[in-house]
């Protein structure tokens, strides 16, 4: 594979994962310290999952997939909707851990997130490879549009962190 094509494909995959799965990943690590906060977080998570499913449905409609592409779409869609890593322990529970245990816990969550992103990237690359030229252009345009919705030149994450576009 030509290096510039590989870089473009890698950037596309990273962008797609941010656009389509960022909301699902963003929710997972934040534990609630109260019953009310837990209920609020669960409602927010459900709204994000619903919005994520809507984005996927819109993308599927715009791609105008053939019957032969449906199984590939299902694999891709399932990967994009897979649950994130386990939850971070509550603040109180984290306080009871020794520093090495907290570090181990955080590293385990990081490894789970990294594995999920890798699986999503592989599913995206496999799905993208099966698209025709017009569908690839639509896919590229739609995923770029999803990323740029949050602002001019930046994608703002759930917690106010700005990330420059690629």
Describe the structure in brief.
By secondary structure, this protein is mostly helical. 72% of the residues lie in helices and 4% in strands.
**Structural class computed from helices and strand pairing:** mainly alpha
Strand ordering within the main sheet: 1-2
What is the mean predicted local confidence, pLDDT?
A: 75
Return residue spans where pLDDT drops below 50 for at least 5 consecutive residues.
21-32, 152-166
Note the quaternary state here: single chain
Note the overall shape: elongated
Based on CA atoms alone, the radius of gyration comes out at: 18 Å
Strand content: under 5%
Order of helices and strands: HHHHHHEE
What tags apply to this protein structure?
single chain; mainly alpha; two-stranded antiparallel ribbon
Descriptive account of the structure:
This protein is mainly α and 166 residues long. It has one domain. 72% of the residues lie in helices and 4% in strands. The chain has 6 helices and 2 strands, in the order H-H-H-H-H-H-E-E. It has helices at 3-27, 35-63, 70-81, 91-96, 99-129, 133-148, and strands at residues 154-156, 162-164. It has a two-stranded antiparallel sheet with strand order 1-2. The chain is elongated, with a radius of gyration of 18 Å. The relative contact order is 0.16.
SSE diagram, text form:
Layout: H1 3-27, H2 35-63, H3 70-81, H4 91-96, H5 99-129, H6 133-148, E1 154-156, E2 162-164
Antiparallel strand pairs: 1-2
